[in-house]
């Protein structure tokens, strides 16, 4: 029930959330590398991520996003976005999402505490996994770039 409320809230405000996140990620000192990514491209990635989170919550984590996030990690590496900037971007998005939920009076009855804890766990697993898969893809790109240099030298 709470997951459904959250997904509806995100869906109803996805454009607003996306615009706020693009501004935040392009201006945060912790995500300076994302300034190298055009605003429309960053906007598309944020919308994809919110859509993935939406499906992830509705399916209780059955959505397989690992390879997609690895590919995005490789893509960010190819755009010279630093790995710390990428990781901080995920943290900024997660914090912004929780702030947004709090501002929109996403409160429930005390008997829903277990459901809220489960929701928090699912959201954290989603974003923590995103950081790990981004990192795997990022490192894969870097190792692929180093390997040809070893053979050339």
Features:
single chain, 153 residues, mainly alpha, 78% helix, globular
Report on the architecture of this protein:
By secondary structure, the chain is mainly α. The protein is 78% helix and 0% strand. The protein is built from 6 helices and no strands. The chain has helices spanning 2-12, 14-27, 39-58, 66-78, 83-103, 113-152. Helix 2 (14-27) packs across helix 5. The chain starts with a helix and ends with a helix. 22% of the residues are buried.
Compact description:
78% of the residues lie in helices and 0% in strands. The chain has six helices and no strands. Helix 1 runs antiparallel to helix 3, helix 2 crosses helix 3 and helix 5 packs antiparallel against helix 6 (113-152).
- Derived from helix and strand composition plus strand pairing, the structural class reads mainly alpha
Largest sheet: none
Tell me, briefly, the overall form.
globular
Show unreliable segments.
none
Could you spell the SSE succession in H and E letters?
Answer: HHHHHH
The end-to-end distance, rounded to whole angstroms, is 59 Å
The share of residues in extended strands comes to: under 5%
Total beta-strand segments: 0
């Amino acid at each position: 029930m709470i997951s459904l409320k959250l997904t509806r809230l995100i869906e109803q405000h996805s454009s607003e959330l996306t615009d706020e996140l693009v501004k935040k990620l392009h201006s945060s000192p912790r995500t300076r590398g994302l300034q190298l990514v055009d605003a429309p491209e960053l906007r598309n990635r944020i919308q994809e991520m919110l859509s993935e989170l939406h499906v992830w919550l509705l399916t209780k984590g059955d959505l397989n996003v690992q390879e997609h996030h690895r590919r995005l990690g490789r893509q960010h590496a190819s755009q010279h976005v630093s790995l710390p900037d990428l990781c901080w971007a995920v943290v900024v998005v997660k914090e912004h999402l929780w702030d947004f939920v709090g501002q929109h009076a996403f409160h429930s009855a005390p008997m829903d505490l277990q459901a809220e804890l489960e929701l928090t766990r699912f959201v954290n697993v989603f974003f923590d996994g995103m950081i790990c898969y981004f990192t795997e893809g990022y490192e894969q790109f870097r190792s692929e770039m180093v390997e040809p240099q070893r053979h050339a030298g």
